[in-house]
């Protein structure tokens, strides 16, 4: 006997599938309309934010800590960054629109087919052709972005004194990033397509399992093999800081396995700290820039905040949220997977949507274009949640008695990172994963104490692995 909920759901999906595959729906027009709409919305938000950088003085909570000169510098840095974002936003949208208008998706698919026959392979090598297609697509969309990346590092960041990178390092970073795409991205994509091909109509749970496996393996692979390509991590030397961090970890029952310093100063003078790892073996990484600019107690207070994220299992909760989002995305994709109207709207032969072996990759990429505007909504919701988590982690540090040190550390970080203390509310809701500094300081000041912490031997995340979490 089949489960009535499952059969009802299958019925709904089947009906939606029929509705969505209608030759009179022009998906290309829809995508262009919605992506320009989203771009207009994002440009509007950035425009709302710009006047914040013309305000003459910092908010009252920060007045005592921000010298006039620093405040002016922060305003000017933020203004430049926002103008850059505005220009980049319009450029990216124009590029995406141009690619759709000239029929690049279908054109490059034919090109990948010619490459394939050049390699002496027939058209039934669908996955190989898909990998070739994704490679040329990635290069076509990525290369026009390189001058922007160059400008960001060597003109914008340089002007405000943050850039520590060199042209050689920048070139090496770019090459390594593309090499990682080839070494990790392409095999994962091949696996992704293979799972769908193999599982057929019921691919969703299998694909979820596959992707979760990849995410968890990256937790192990990233710090050991990928991060060392870009940065050097060294054990934090013995001394007062190391002793105090170990004491804190001990007090909280945090399974600290390794404590590292990362050479963040190699590229930039922005600073931070984070932790990652499996539930029984955690690594803490502190930026050398944070250590340089703060007192020992301030660094420990920052880690008190970080360990608040661990105590409340925030990374695990975020992982669950992303899994739910993925489940929803893949379920909607299952509605579009054989959609002939979608293929033909973008200049592909509609029979590709139903042939065997089917080039699923085309459907997935086109589906992503259709789904893209929903990202805005996801961003609003996700940021509301992460901001709530930041307040909670701050409260945790306050409960550990680190209010004064955390406040002064956050102010120092704010000053060295030249963040602007003013923000438009809509801009903040959309872009900020963290509350802005005056909000955090006010909340810490207003906090009256909550439930006592259950410390020592606490294991807030007994079963799941956790994602990297920035301050
Ligand atoms: Zn945080």
From TrEMBL:
KW Protease (keyword) present: yes
A Pfam family annotated for this UniProt entry: Peptidase_M48
Subcellular location: Endoplasmic reticulum membrane
Free-text remark on how the cofactor is bound: Binds 1 zinc ion per subunit.
Residue positions of the active site: 306, 394
Ranges of residues in domain Peptidase M48: 236-446
Domain of life: Eukaryota
Residues annotated for Zn(2+) binding in this entry: 305, 309, 390
Enzyme class: hydrolase
Segments traversing the membrane: 131-156, 177-196, 202-222
UniProt keyword annotations, A-Z: Endoplasmic reticulum, Hydrolase, Membrane, Metal-binding, Metalloprotease, Protease, Transmembrane, Transmembrane helix, Zinc
Major localization listed first in the record, in broad terms: endoplasmic reticulum
Residue ranges occupied by any CAAX prenyl protease 1 N-terminal domain in the UniProt entry: 52-232
Gene Ontology MF term list: metal ion binding; metalloendopeptidase activity
GO biological process: CAAX-box protein processing
EC number(s) from the headed UniProt entry: 3.4.24.84
InterPro entries in alphabetical order: CAXX_Prtase_1 (IPR027057), Peptidase_M48 (IPR001915), Peptidase_M48_N (IPR032456)
Membrane topology: Multi-pass membrane protein
One GO CC term, this protein: endoplasmic reticulum membrane
PANTHER family to which the protein is assigned, alphabetical: CAAX PRENYL PROTEASE 1
Similarity annotation: Belongs to the peptidase M48A family.
Protein name listed in UniProt: CAAX prenyl protease
